[in-house]
Amino acid sequence: MIGERYVNGAVLIGLIALPLWALSADEVFTITLTTRAAILALAAVGLNIALGIGGMVSFGHAVFFGLGGYAMGILAFHAQTFSPLDFGLFALPGTKSMPVIWLVATVVSAFAAWIIGLLSLRTAGVYFIMITLAFGQMFFYFAISWGAYGGEDGLSIYVRNSFVGLDTLMPIQFFGLCFALLCLALLLQWRLRRSPFGLALNAARQSTERVQSVGLNPRQLKLLAFVISGAITGVAGALFADLNRFVSPTMFSWQLSGELIILTIIGGVGRLMGPVIGAAIFITLEHWLGGLTDFWHVWLGTILLAIVLFWRGGVIGLLTGKEGPHV
Amino acid sequence: MSEPVLSTHGLRKSFGALTATDNVSIDLRRGEIHAIIGPNGAGKTTLIAQISGSLASDAGRVELEGRDVTSLGTEARARAGLGRTFQISALAMEDTVFENVLLGAVGATSGAWALFRSVIHDRNLTDHAMQALERVGLAGAHRTRCADLSHGQRRQLEVAVALTLRPRLFVMDEPTAGLGAEGSRAMTAFLDGLRVEAPILLVEHDMDAVFALADRISVLVYGRIIATGTIDDIRASEEVREAYLGEPA
Ligand SMILES: Nc1ncnc2c1ncn2[C@@H]1O[C@H](COP(=O)(O)OP(=O)(O)OP(=O)(O)O)[C@@H](O)[C@H]1O
Ligand SMILES: [Mg+2]
Q1: CB-based contacts of B235, cutoff 8 Å, min separation 6
Q2: How many Cβ atoms are within 10 Å of A169's Cβ, its own excluded?
Q3: What are the pLDDT digits (tens) for A241-266?
Q4: Whose CA, among A221, A317, B64, B105, lies 20 to 30 Å from A261?
Q5: How far, in Å, from the CA of B111 to the mean position of ligand 1?
Q6: Could you tell me the distance, in angstroms and rounded to a whole number, from the CA of residue A123 to the centre of ligand 2?
Q7: All domains in chain A, ordered by first residue
Q8: pTM for this structure?
Q9: Are B109 and B125 in contact (CB under 8 A)?
Q10: For chain B, which domains are there?
C-alpha cells in the first residue's frame, strides 16, 4: 500500500506533467482536456469541504458553479458591448479582468451559499438533498428565462478574459492559472481540515450531540463550511465559463450537481486529493468512453456502484489501503 | 446553606401516553455526588437529556447556579458549565481518541472559529487534551480510532471529553457500564476524587459504585422521584425496597 502523501504528490505531478508533455507534442486538445479536469476538480474541492468534511450532501452545487459562470459571462458581456451594468441607483462598467471576475464570483456564490445554507441546514438527510436540489432547479429555470443574458441559448464571450502578465489565450497559460487556483484551494482545504474549525466540523458530521455538548454550534459550523464550499465552486464556474468562452443554463443543471458528487465519491470522499483523482477519471471516461459509446454514463454508474459497494474510500482509499471514507 | 449548582423544578416530559418524567424536582449541591437510580425505562436518561438541554421539557424549570437555563440549548448549557457524558456514546467514531478529547479542548476555549491555526501544533490544546486522557487512564490508546474501542473505553473517553470542559458540574449517564470489575473499580475511585472539582449528578446501575460514591441518592420509578436521601435512608425505605431493590418488605 502507498502512503497517502505520495499518492497526493503523484497526482499533482501527473496533472501538471500531462499538459507540459502535450505542449511539447503539440497536442492542444489534451491541454484543454486537462484544464477541464483541473476546473472540475476545483469545483469538487469546494463540494468536498461541504460533503466530505461536513457531511452535507448538497445536490445543488451547480448553483454556485452557475453563478460563477454567469458572474464571468455578465461582466465580460458588458465589457465587450461597452454597456454599463445598470443597478438602478448606480451603474458599473463590465470587466475583462480575471481577478476581478473571480472576486465577484466568490462573493456572489458565497452569499448565495449563505442564504441557501441558512434555509437548507434546518433540515438533514434526504430533506437536505431535496431542498438543495430544489434551489438548483430554481436557478436553472431562472437562467433559462433571463432573456437579457441569452436565456436558454446562453451567452458567448468572444475573447478570453485577461490576467496581468499572461496571454490567457495560450492554452498552457490558462491551464497554469487553473492549476494554481486548484493548488490554492487544496492548500485551503488542507489547512482548514487541520484547524480547530476543521476538527469541529469533522466531528459535527459524525455526531451533532457530541459537538453541542462541548459547547459548539454544529449548524453554524456547517453553515460556514457551506459558504466556503460554495465560494470555491463559484470560482471554478468562472474558470469553466472562461475555458469555453460561453455560459448557459446547463451550468446550473442538476446533472452537474450530480456529476460533482459522483466524481468526489469515485476519488474518495473527504480525502484531500479525492476530487482531483475523481475529476481526472471522470474526464478520461467522458473522453474515451464518450467517443466509443453514447452510453458512457452506464460505465460511470458501474464504477460508482463498485466503489460505493466495495471501496468506500474511493480510489484514494484503494491506493492507500485505508478503508474508511474519511481520514 | 449555599445555593445548589443545579436544580430542577417540576420537570415533565411525555412521549405520547407515556409519562417519562413526572414532576421531577431535584438538586445537586457543591462537592457532592448525587446518584439517580431506578429500573430500566424509569426515565433516567430522559431526565439527563432535559437537564442538559438536548430534550425540551413539557413543563418545569432547570437552573444552573441560580440562573434559569430552561430556554437555552445544549451548547449554551455546556458553555454555562454543564459537562455531560452519554449512556449511548456520542463520540466522533471515525476519529481517534485524541481527536475526540481535542474537540473538547477546542470547545472549552471556544476556538472553533480559527480557520487556519493548526490544532495539533497548539500545545495548550494538546496538553490539555492529553491530561484529560491520562486522568481516565486512556492515554495509551490515544491513537486508536473510536470505533475500535471497547464499550468500557468509550465510557472512559466520554468522561475524558467532559473533563476537558472543566465544567461546573458533571451529569453522567452510567459511566461505569461495560468497564468490567477492574475498570469499574478504577472509575469509581476516579469519580470519588472528582467530586471536589465539580459535583456529579450520577445515573448508575452498578449498586456497588452507587453505595461507594453517593452522598445522596434519588430513586426514580416510572418518571417519578419516590425517595431522596442518604444511603442509609434509601436502604431503610420500605417503598424503595418494594419498587426497586426488589426485596420483600
Ligand atoms: N424519544 C423517545 N420517544 C418515545 N419514547 C421514549 C423516547 N425516549 C425514551 N422513551 C421511553 O421513555 C421511557 C424512559 O426511557 P429512558 O431511556 O429515559 O429510561 P432509563 O431510565 O434511562 O432506562 P435505562 O436504565 O435502560 O437506561 C422508556 O419507556 C422509553 O421507552
Ligand atoms: Mg438510560
Answers
A1: none
A2: 11
A3: 999 999 999 999 999 999 999 999 99
A4: A221
A5: 35
A6: 27
A7: 4-320 (1.10.3470)
A8: 0.94
A9: yes
A10: 1-81+168-249 (3.40.50.300), 91-166 (no CATH)
